[in-house]
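Subject: for your reference before the review

Hello V.,

The reviewers asked for a structural picture of the protein, and I figured it would be easier to keep everything in one thread rather than splitting it across files. Below is the amino acid sequence we used in the manuscript, unchanged from the supplementary table.
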Amino acid sequence: MKFPTVTLDDKYALDSGRAYLNGIQALVRLPMMQRARDIAAGLNTAGFVTGYRGSPLGSVDQEMWKASAHLERRHVRFQPGLNEDLAATSVWGSQQVNLFPGAKYDGVFALWYGKGPGVDRCGDVFRHANAAGTSKHGGVLVVAGDDHAAKSSTLPHQTEHVFKAMMMPVLAPAGLQECLEYGLHGWALSRFSGCWVAFKALSDTVETSGSIEVDPFRVQTTTPEIEMPEGGLNIRWPDPPLVQEERLLHHKLYAALAYGRENRLNRIVIDAPRARLGIITAGKSYLDVRQAFDDLGIDEARAAELGIRLYKVGMVWPLEAEGVRQFADGLDEILVVEEKRQFLEYQLKEELYNWREDVRPRVIGKFDEKGEWALPHGSWLLPAAGELTPAMIARVIAARIGRFHTSERIKARLAFLDEKEAALARPRTAIQRVPHYCSGCPHNTSTKVPDGSRAIAGIGCHYMATWLSASTTQTFCQMGGEGVPWIGQAPFTETRHVFANLGDGTYFHSGVLAIRAAVAAGVNITYKLLYNDAVAMTGGQPHDGVLTVPIIARQLAAEGVRQIVVVTDEPAKYSGKSELAPGVPVRHRDELDAVQRELREQPGVTAIVYDQTCAAEKRRRRKRGKLADPPLRVVINEAVCEGCGDCSEKSNCMAVVPVETEFGRKRAIDQSSCNKDFSCLKGFCPSFVTVEGGRMRQGKGVGPADFSDLPQPQIPMLNEPWGILITGVGGTGVITIGALLGMAAHLEGKGVSVLDMAGLAQKGGAVWSHARFADRQERLFAARVAAGEANAVIGCDMVVSASDEWLAKMRDGFTRAVINSTHSVTSEFVRGFA
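And here is what came back from the structure prediction:
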């Protein structure tokens, strides 16, 4: 087979055709596409992108930097924000460019990005800026990363309720292709209505890769003909607040509704001549509904025969009324399928409320006919907590159509789900692969506190201290509030002092205000400012500006912090330097316990600036030749080791692994994961040997001849979707396997989606990829492999592969699995629980 010429640059370089890219890269491509559309329309516009990283949008800035040449060539400026609300404020400014003389462009279209907590903190900016409006040839797209299952967040988020309160239209793309399509619609809608437009981004869209059409002119946008108020709908100055309110409530939101109706953002995708059951859904839930149909053996023709009408909503707020009325007409019942709290359901009920009782369909969603507020409580159909799955949705659909239809396929599917649930519910010993600090991570040492003290956790990798040091690190708060809960506790407790962990990225983002508040309140607290020289949690990005230990020390002194101590693993680098604030000593990290004991006796606010570069970032820099690699390695003499575990206790390091011998369990150093922190040497154990100048013996590579005896695999026809589940440990190449399979399918012109689910997995936790393939892209709906639908499992780690979540994807007699039998150390072992 001759493959087309494909490069990794296609995702940005191609002007049309198909490209293989993920959702984050689609967001990077969007402003390039908008610029191309504007040029074709005779407009000289520019783009502005800003925001603040956070899962599932944790790598937006990295991808923007990688694509900088493409962006600059198309007049798109990327400026990472100091924090979310200041980034949003700068977007507001981009819409004011053409209010004043000197504008170099006809308009500036802008994209803001941030995760759910960032949306929360931007409420004031969004409210003001949306009321002010957008420029005629600008427009604003607000990309909100929602983490419905709190995979890598302190709480789940559902931002559409916030955007509704801000009176911002909300778009909910279903799948990767719609990331591009709805992004372009979003800017067109924003320009026309004068509103800032929200764009809901879930892991299932932005962390999915696939082969999609990238032609910027594929989407045709139509401007409705509506009566405009005097001066139009866009931003202007002067603009009194009550005039802004009247324009927004009486005109701009109705313009948004008109745009949605004219461009069919909401539409019936399956209809029936005599429809009786209607299903209304949006975004990821739409794909889950289609997957549930597939699992129940209901294709579009069969759905029409059964009297099912399916309504897909692209603009979930405000819900356009005319389309809803057409959808609801003649139905007996409407099932609303949406994740988290009711959003579409309440709008739908409001629209149907005044219909005559004899023609008004019954509406169910989160609850059955019993209703929401029945006591003791209603019967949940589709729970608001957690995430929905195609299996959950299939059960509800089967139950609702069960009054007039069933089939052997439906019975078999429901029976399988019941059997699988019963099997997984049986008691058994289970090991969890929970995230842990990387080998050699500074937090292994920096988050420890002296006996008799406790610490308050902060946002960052060090948040893991809430389970890794659960007896001493308890409670946390939102990003930027670190330590401030103590202001409300201190007057009412006999405890006189606490520690608070604060990451350098958070300090730069907003955390310095928390320290200022503690100083103003006069409480006794020691801030441990963990300076890692990188924003480690989201991939090792640099700070969003200049931040060094001397700068921090001087800022803290200026804020009124009473005593500041720099603690570091390299005190010599501060020798003879005067950049630190006067009176700030530098102590070795071995003295951390003593420093903490001294500071906890001091009244007022004190601070430790713990200076040690992130271990993962050190590893990256060494590989790139930007940091010297110490010519030293630590090994353990197995014959001398007594397996006491003191090295693990001292270092808390995942590179110290168990070795089972005829004399019992011993310890060894995993040289491939060791980041040369050497804190394991503090165990003063005679079994430890340091080797200076030695190099690791290289393993023997493999070639095609080594696989010559293996039979050629039988490639499936892919007339039905084919699912592969890849499971393993973060940082070991699981995502790479999915990427290779995905690109191979793209080269062959197959339909493909690969969903990477990592969360905190880069810290030694569980990671997995759902890879799905079909003969054409349109055959793939949900990005996740459904329950019992894994054709193959590549299990790179036994612990992850044997967890309930992944056993649920397997089916006896259907799934084939290849499992790595090598044992990888778990966090429980390091902490002495295994």
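For the response letter, the relevant points are probably these. The mean pLDDT is 94. The first strand starts at residue 18 and ends at 22.

Happy to draft the paragraph if you're swamped.

O.
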